[in-house]
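I'll show a sample.
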Amino acid sequence: KAILRQDNDVRYTLLESDQPITVRLLDARGNLLEERQQYANDFGTINGDFVLPSEGNLGNYRIEVKALGES
């Protein structure tokens, strides 16, 4: 689950519901494993899950969330 807010100077606001949000899963070597588009709900949150490959690389995996051109 991710909670997303837009920084408007000194105030935080919710993202527009039609604003696409890109969620990416990367392995320990930075290889892109999966990418999907989501849209925030009325509370500014998104959720989902990824299934890691059984033969995947060892190490730390990363989830990147990008909205409004920023991650």
Observations:
- The chain has a mean pLDDT of 89.
- The longest strand covers residues 32-39.
